[in-house]
Design a protein that fits this description.
By secondary structure, the chain is of the alpha+beta class. Helix content is 47%, strand content 23%. β2 (75-78) and β3 form a beta hairpin.
Length: 148
C-alpha cells in the first residue's frame, strides 16, 4: 500500500509558530492588565494600543498554526483493490474501488475518475510539484492498468 501525504508540513515549525502566538497573547494580556490598572490611554499614538495589537497578533498566529496542523491529515493511498483519500473539503476518508473505474482523466491540478456509479474529481491545489508528479505518475500507471 502506497501512501502519499498531500501537504508537507514541518511540525516543529508549526509548533514554534503556535508557541510564538501564545507568547504574544500572554505578553499582550500582561501589558493590557497593566494598562487597565494604571488607566488605559486611548490615544492612538502614544497610547496603550500595543497590548491590543499583541493580543490580536497572538490569536492570529495560534489560529494559523492550528489551521496548518490540519493539513497534515490529507493523503491519498493506493493498494491493488482500492484508492483511499482524504482531501480538502472532505469530511471523512473516501474509497474508490479500482474494479469500478471506467476511465481516468489527468489534468493540471485535478484528476477526474469516472466510475460506474459516479464521477469523482480529486483536486490537488497548492500541492508541491514533486508530490503532484508522484500522484500523477501513480494515476498514469493505474490508467494503463485499467485499459489492459
Amino acid at each position: 500500500m502506497e501512501r502519499i501525504n498531500i501537504y508537507k508540513i514541518k511540525g516543529s515549525f508549526i509548533k514554534a509558530f503556535i508557541a510564538i502566538g501564545f507568547l504574544f497573547l500572554i505578553l499582550g494580556l500582561i501589558i493590557l492588565s497593566r494598562a487597565i490598572y494604571i488607566g488605559f490611554d486611548t490615544r492612538f499614538f502614544g497610547g496603550h494600543w500595543d497590548s491590543i495589537i499583541y493580543i490580536f497578533q497572538g490569536i492570529v498566529f495560534i489560529v494559523m498554526g492550528f489551521y496548518q496542523l490540519n493539513y497534515r491529515s490529507y493523503f491519498i493511498e493506493w493498494n491493488e483493490n482500492e484508492i483511499k483519500y482524504f482531501l480538502r473539503g472532505d469530511k471523512q476518508i473516501r474509497n474508490i474501488n479500482i474494479s469500478t473505474i471506467k476511465s481516468i482523466e489527468i489534468k493540471t491540478t485535478t484528476v477526474v475518475i469516472e466510475t460506474y456509479e459516479n464521477e469523482v474529481v480529486l483536486e490537488f491545489d497548492l500541492v508541491e510539484y514533486g508530490v503532484l508528479k508522484r500522484i500523477k505518475d501513480k494515476f498514469e500507471e493505474l490508467k494503463t492498468d485499467i485499459k489492459n
